[in-house]
């Protein structure tokens, strides 16, 4: 047994007992219609719609947890009540999410975590890596990109999972409770059972691929082939056994035999789409600890993960450009029914800045351990002022990448999709230390490969399927052995000029994460809204394609006003899963997205 686990295990057993006392699950949204995400073309695939459930901001004086499922939030709250840190609570939350929200995240996937200890902001990178045996043609057949779901479903798309190594690294520095204790809430739920939520039930009903895997079919579906319904008690003794082994032996138990051997066997044995993962790939995985990437906007400093997550970098560009626009004066108005009414000016200005940032992202952003990325140049104030000068009264349509200082030449743009099954965890503990963590297995139910009670990611499909563009120029985000695929995840911590924590926030949503999080930053920092109101705002933005507006939540007049400015407008479901915590004079205010099942709770 690892020495640190042995040392920490001597804390009082009452801590474990406290963590077993989970509160009852809050009422979940009613089951809605979940259209299956369309195969992506020009980055348009939406997150499945969950309906809308009104939520009120939660207030707390001492600590707060916001996450995507009430049972996971309960685990985090009990951890903090037992004297745990923000990192401790994040681990407990993640393990429960693996059970109650398996379509979105889990130990078979990866994550980015940003942590504030009262003095220093650190970023922890648990992004999956490509196996050593891959090459740039991984997702090509006869020299052409494969159909998307032909690549996703099976072993080919599975990268080396990173979330456990990342959480172990963060816990070694900031954990207060024993590692083993943090698995107890998830073990209890896995063994005693939990009710399938309406959202999970609907996703099971509409997924076209999950029941092809024998293990997943036996777990999620009835003997007649129908999906298990909301309220069904689901038990997962296989995963409980994995959690017990991880609790005893640490994350290393996952990356070595027998668990790693079983993962590799699952990936390699797929009958039509095997992968290239090896036990050496698993054993060699390392999480990264790096300084956070930060940018200034108005009177605050915003910090998030550096590459290979492009989220912080793209938001730094967007808000650096918006500094040169009058968007702060375009504050939304509130309608008599309490809903928010966006102005065409605000949507226009934000969307134009976003399309410029997304153009740069497609051209430059990738794992900077493998390719040159001009990070300082992309955030250079002079460059962003120049880019902001391209924003006029008329939409530019398709933006072109710029020429920041020290930019590489002869590079092709990447149009790789990122699908939106991901989850956000925001936590502030009793000492004021904070975590923002975005965690994912990529597409809904990942690669649809289940082993030992958990699903494996399809994260390698976040690489560009084409290694070069039509002119033969290399794509920065092409597949390479050991490389981490580019991400849009943007778990953020926000600080005032005195280095006091102001917010923890983030969202799922694939490549739309940048705009979802950008909307909340805009609402809170430029328009003075509280965290819940900013989350409630209709989603909007552009990913350097159409200007996207949240279907059913904007008036026709806004669409017409944007079209009059030359925008191609696309109305679409935009099911963000925003979670956030904001400092208020007497404590903390927590917000959760009405579009999903998350809640915020504190004390």
Structural account:
The protein is α+β, with helices and mostly antiparallel strands. The chain has 20 helices and 25 strands. The strands form 7 sheets. Strands 1-24-23-19-18-11-10 form a 7-stranded antiparallel β-sheet. The chain has a 7-stranded antiparallel β-sheet with strand order 9-4-3-15-14-2-25. A hairpin with a 4-residue loop joins strand 20 and strand 21. The longest helix is centred in the middle third of the chain and has 21 residues, at 344-364. The radius of gyration is 22 Å and the shape is globular.
Strand proportion, as a percent range, falls in 15-25%
- By helix and strand content, what is the structural category? alpha+beta
Work out the helicity level. 25-40%
Radius of gyration, taken over Cα atoms and rounded to an integer in Å: 22 Å
Largest sheet, in brief, is:
7 strands, antiparallel
**Stretches where pLDDT falls below 50 for ≥5 residues?**
1-47
Principal-axis shape: globular
**Could you give the count of β-strands?**
25
pLDDT average, as an integer?
Answer: 91
Taking the alpha carbons of the first and last residues, their distance comes to: 35 Å
Number of helices: 20
Name the strands of the widest sheet in spatial order.
1-24-23-19-18-11-10
């Amino acid at each position: 047994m690892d020495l640190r686990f042995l040392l920490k295990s001597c804390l009082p057993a009452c801590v474990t007992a406290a963590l077993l006392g989970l509160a009852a699950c809050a009422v979940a949204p009613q089951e809605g219609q979940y259209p299956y995400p369309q195969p992506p073309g020009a980055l348009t695939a939406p997150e499945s719609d969950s309906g809308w459930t009104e939520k009120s901001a939660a207030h707390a004086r001492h600590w707060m947890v916001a996450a995507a499922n009430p049972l996971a939030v309960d685990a985090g709250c009990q951890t903090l009540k037992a004297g745990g840190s923000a990192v401790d609570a994040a681990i407990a939350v993640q393990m429960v999410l693996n059970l109650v929200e398996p379509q979105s995240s889990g130990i078979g996937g990866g994550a980015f975590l940003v942590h504030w200890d009262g003095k220093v902001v650190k970023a922890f990178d648990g992004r999956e890596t490509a196996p050593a045996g891959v090459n740039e043609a991984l997702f090509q057949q006869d020299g052409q990109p494969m159909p998307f779901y032909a690549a996703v479903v099976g072993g080919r798309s599975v990268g080396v999972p990173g979330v456990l190594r990342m959480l172990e690294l963060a816990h070694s520095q900031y954990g207060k409770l024993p590692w083993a204790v943090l698995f107890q809430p998830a073990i209890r739920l896995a063994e005693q059972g939990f009710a399938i939520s309406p959202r999970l039930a609907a996703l099971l009903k509409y997924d076209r691929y999950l029941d092809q895997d024998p293990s997943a079919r036996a777990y999620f579906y009835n003997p007649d082939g129908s999906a298990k319904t909301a309220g069904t008690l689901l038990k997962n003794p296989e995963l409980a056994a994995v959690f017990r082994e991880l609790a005893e032996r640490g994350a290393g138990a996952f990356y070595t035999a027998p668990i790693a051997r079983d993962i590799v066997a699952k990936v390699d044995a797929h009958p039509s789409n095997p992968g290239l993962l090896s036990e050496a790939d698993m054993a060699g995985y390392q999480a990264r600890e790096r300084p956070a990437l930060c940018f200034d906007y108005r009177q605050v400093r915003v910090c998030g993960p550096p590459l290979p997550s492009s989220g912080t970098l793209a938001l730094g560009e967007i808000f650096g450009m918006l500094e040169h626009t009058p968007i702060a004066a375009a504050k939304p108005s509130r309608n008599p029914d309490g809903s928010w009414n966006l102005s065409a000016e605000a949507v226009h200005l934000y969307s134009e800045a976003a399309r410029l940032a997304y153009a740069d992202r497609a051209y430059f952003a990738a794992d900077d351990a493998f390719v040159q990325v001009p990070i300082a140049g992309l955030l250079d104030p002079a460059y962003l002022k120049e880019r902001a000068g391209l924003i006029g009264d008329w939409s530019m349509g398709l933006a072109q990448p710029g020429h920041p200082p020290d930019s590489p030449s002869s590079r092709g743009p990447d149009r790789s999709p990122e699908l939106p099954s991901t989850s956000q965890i925001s936590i502030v503990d009793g000492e004021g230390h904070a975590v923002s963590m975005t965690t994912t297995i990529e597409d809904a139910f990942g690669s649809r490969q289940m082993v030992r009670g958990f699903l494996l990611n399809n994260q390698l499909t976040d690489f560009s399927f084409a290694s070069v563009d039509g002119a033969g120029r290399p794509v920065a985000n092409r597949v390479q052995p050991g490389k981490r695929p580019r991400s849009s995840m943007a778990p953020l911590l926000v600080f005032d000029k005195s280095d006091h924590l102001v917010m923890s926030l983030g969202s799922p949503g694939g490549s739309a994460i940048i705009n979802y999080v950008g909307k909340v930053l805009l609402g809170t920092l430029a328009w003075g809204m509280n965290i819940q109101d900013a989350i409630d705002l209709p989603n909007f933005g552009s990913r350097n394609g159409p200007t996207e507006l949240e279907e059913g939540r904007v008036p026709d007049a806004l669409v017409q006003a944007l079209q009059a400015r030359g925008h191609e407008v696309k109305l679409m479901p935009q099911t963000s899963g925003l979670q956030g915590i904001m400092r208020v004079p007497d404590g903390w205010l927590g917000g959760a997205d009405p579009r999903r099942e998350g809640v915020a709770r504190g004390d």
